[in-house]
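Bumping with the actual sequence this time:
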Amino acid sequence: MTITCFIRYEIDPFQSEAFREYAARWATIIPRCGGDLVGYFVPHEGTNNVAWGLIAFDSLAAYEAYRARLKADPDGRANFALAQAKRLILREERTFLEAVGATFRMSAPTTPTK
């Protein structure tokens, strides 16, 4: 079973570019520590203070092992410290989700149907 850690961030909307940089740094750190980085998502239109990060794991045990490696990782610690120093993240929530197989990654047909 694959689970996805869905992280909802309340961010400072005046620091959205700094949050993008923070998120981009995870691109090498998360996979190195054992997470399957689905992606980070930042506001484009509408609400300007909510962003999301999605990271997949084989199990909750794999997530716990990842968290331990992340806490020991110098680049991970530095990225957390940067976010704290700049106060980019005002609030953070984590939810663990499992995809409904029949609905996951359903692409639009190459030729639209009428």
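The tokens above came from a reply further down the thread. The chain has a mean pLDDT of 92.
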